[in-house]
Amino acid sequence: MKIRVGQGYDVHQWVSGRPCVLGGIEIPSDKGPMGHSDADVVCHVLCEALLGAANMRNIGFHFSDKDPQWKGVASTKLLARVMEMLREAGWELGNADVTVVLDQPKLNAHIPAMKENLAQVMGVEVDQISIKATTSEGIGFVGRGEGISAMAVALIQKMA
């Protein structure tokens, strides 16, 4: 069986007056990530990891922030399209693992809903998606509350 692994990394600045959408779920917060789309770093790193594994460039290549059609779009739509692209090329998800780095808001209570939502968007089983949250222990731009970062790895396999 042919398998490939890809990784994704994303960073967004925190700003007041924007919703905090992670994994397609709105998380209660007094600030949210800034971006051309809804700036959902969880969906973005999954897109990056999947596209990288399939050797299909990156999220900016397919969904440019210069293209007005993507302004304010739900990143779950981008992720759903990436999954379509992979399937069209004969790939399926083995598993994906996401780590979100932020000091606030706390995510543990929201992770089950995020996983359920992402599994539905991606057309996979919930146990194929892992999401973890960690802090930066008050260090760097994340620790100072200036931004959020996330990373992901995805394993894809050729469909039989």
Description:
- By secondary structure, the protein is α+β, with helices and mostly antiparallel strands.
- It has a single domain, classed as 2-C-methyl-D-erythritol 2,4-cyclodiphosphate synthase (60s Ribosomal Protein L30, Chain: A, 2-Layer Sandwich).
- The protein has helices spanning 41-53, 59-62, 75-88, 111-122, 140-143, and strands spanning 3-16, 20-22, 25-27, 31-33, 91-101, 129-134, 147-158.
- The strands form 2 sheets. Strands 4-1-7-5-6 form a 5-stranded mixed sheet. It has a two-stranded antiparallel ribbon with strand order 2-3.
- α1 (41-53) packs parallel to α3 (75-88).
- The chain starts with a strand and ends with a strand.
What class do helices, strands and sheet pairing give? alpha+beta
Task: Supply the CATH architecture.
Answer: 2-Layer Sandwich
CATH superfamily: 2-C-methyl-D-erythritol 2,4-cyclodiphosphate synthase
Distance between the termini: 8 Å
Number of individual domains: 1
What portion of the residues fall into strands of 2 or more residues?
25-35%
Tell how many strands the DSSP assignment holds.
Answer: 7
Please describe the topology of this protein.
Elements lengths: L2 E14 L3 E3 L2 E3 L3 E3 L7 H13 L5 H4 L12 H14 L2 E11 L9 H12 L6 E6 L5 H4 L3 E12 L2
Helix pairs in contact: 1-3
Short description:
The chain has helices at residues 41-53, 59-62, 75-88, 111-122, 140-143, and strands at residues 3-16, 20-22, 25-27, 31-33, 91-101, 129-134, 147-158. The protein is of the alpha+beta class. The protein has a single domain, classed as 60s Ribosomal Protein L30, Chain: A (2-Layer Sandwich), CATH 3.30.1330.
